[in-house]
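Re: weekly structure request thread

Next one in the queue (204 aa):
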Amino acid sequence: MTTRVAIYARVSTTNHGQDVGLQTREQHQFAAARGWQVFDDYIDEGVSGSKDSRPELNRLMADAHKRRFDVVCVWRFDRFARSVSHLLRALETFNALGIAFVSLGEQMDTTTPTGKMVFTVLAAVAELERSLIVERVRAGLRNARAKGKRLGRPRVAVDAARIGRLRAQGRSIREIAEELGYSRSLVHKTIANGEARGVAIIGD
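Done, posted below.
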């Protein structure tokens, strides 16, 4: 079965002599040397690598999910991903879809045992980074609680008596919420709790 490869290239500007052909020529030569069939060229011209959304990159990812090719080939990491985290997320997506990834500049090729090992290491580093971030957040919350800080959304003072009166007049929850400036869920909770007198403090 012939291996289908998607070629991705990008230049941030069409001025100053940047030529996307410098990238695609080497990519096509590499694909030919491997005996791969080029499925399509996905080329973003005049698009910054810092942008989250790029037309041709979006099209490539959509086609990847449709399994229209077996390998993605890029010239260098920075032509493809805007950051290390972006690159790792894309690699994890490709890996889950059974699509290999090749970067000529970094000599990374996940169709080879060495390339697969590099991906495994990168994925492990990414997972470690995510775990450290979660632990830092938890540590911050524990520290805030230890200092007596109240966490979560602020509590809202609710005039339950007024809600009860409006409800008794046959007003709907939506109408009560709009008139008093409360959320519908807060009005519903107040009514459900049967707090028909005084002022109640309820988290929205």
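The helical segments are 21-34, 55-65, 77-80, 84-97, 113-146, 160-168, 173-180, 184-192. The mean pLDDT is 82.
Next request, please.
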